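Morning. Coffee machine broken again, so started the prediction first thing and wrote up yesterday's gels while waiting. Chain of 468 residues, entered below exactly as on the submission form.
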Amino acid sequence: MAQPINSRCCAGPVRRREFLRLGLAGFAGLSLPDLFRLRATAGSRSERRRSAIIVVWLHGGASHIETFDPKPDAPSEYRGPFESIDTRIPGLQFSELLPRMAGIADKFTVLKSLVHTGFCHDDGPQQIFTGHPLQGRRLKPDDPDLLTIANYLRNDPARDLPNYVGVNPIPYLGSAYLGPAYDPFAVYGDPNAPDFAVPNIGIKDADGAARLKQRIGLRVGLDRLRRDVDTGKNMEALDQFEAQAWNVLAGTAARDAFDISGEDPRLRDRYGRNRWGQQCLLARRLVEAGVELVSVTLNGMLCGRTQSWDDHAVNHHIFDAMKGRTPLLDQAVSSLIEDIYQRGLDERVMVVLGGDFGRTPKISYVASSGEGLYSGPAGTVQPGRDHWPNAMSFVFSGGRIPVGQVIGSTDARGENAVQRRLGVQDFIATLYRHLGIDAERVQIMNFAGRPIPILQDGKPIPELVGRA
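Came back before lunch.
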């Protein structure tokens, strides 16, 4: 049995540099080669499809045993204190902490046998979303992740909405050699707060709009670029991005899409009047408005002292933490899935729920490193589970996929995937298939001008391929 890596891989939350993805700051991050590439590829991209993805990410890695893969017959040092409950699918059980998800299990499919080799919080998601077997600490991947690649391939400067929005973006992902223009439009803050607003969109007053237009004008914002160097191609490409920035910053579509206050208060209550519930509601609102790529990270103070699902015993009393936070997840995600179906968005929107990895099936007991929410005073011995990429559970819903299924299984203790063991390449191929991207054929040039396939191996998981 593989041994868990200790908590030296666990750093505190890293604050990502915030870019204005559209507008002047986005332009400034582009090199001349980037601009040439944008222009050169603009005419070759296929017509934009309407399929969309919402990724709900549990930063830190939630325990599979306390969520979708309980082990009621395992010894007590593995199974934990929670009961298993039946779902709407005969023979399928979840943790008692997920009663709402159990009640709509006929609206999604559970994958229990995804594995990778990343034991840390950076290489876990980087493997899952790039497909590269990255190991060793790095804040950003060497190659662009799936979502930024999809944003690049689906680029349309005529849009009046950003096409990739990170509602609290997934940590440790990035655009690498594609450039920051394809990173997510980052939305921070608490959508449940009365004064929640997304800055830099929907300038309302005429004077402000006029000043903004001048600021992002080429003659002001790009003074330092030599206009005698391939002027036509560079300026034409920049004109496209200036137009898109103007559409987003000064138009009404983006402002309306992000205005969560326009939702029925009863629906907001249904999702949960907390940060996670309203983040998921905002994600639904965005895809309904036309955004095609949305990620939602559920972390922060609702998670506990270390603000993530990283339930080492030094961080949290795992069972107190799961009992406190999992009902919020249960309410938010079940409401999102139901809402997607009730609005008919399941025809084109796929919801994916997962995290960095699973947790060690055998419970460990270690002294707490500090007192806080879900953690006893420093020195208090408390239970925890460590990193475990040998078995993890993911949930897929919508996208016209068959639902009410279980793919794969783990052994009696939840230690290893034993049936339908699937890797990250299969996961990536499945999402590309939903997005209509021919991943077996597409290559992207890296910094050295070398063509890099966006998929090295793997095939779409048959049970997760939507009907035609």
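Residues 1-8, 12-48, 218-224, 226-238 have pLDDT under 50 and may be disordered. Going to sketch it on the whiteboard this afternoon.
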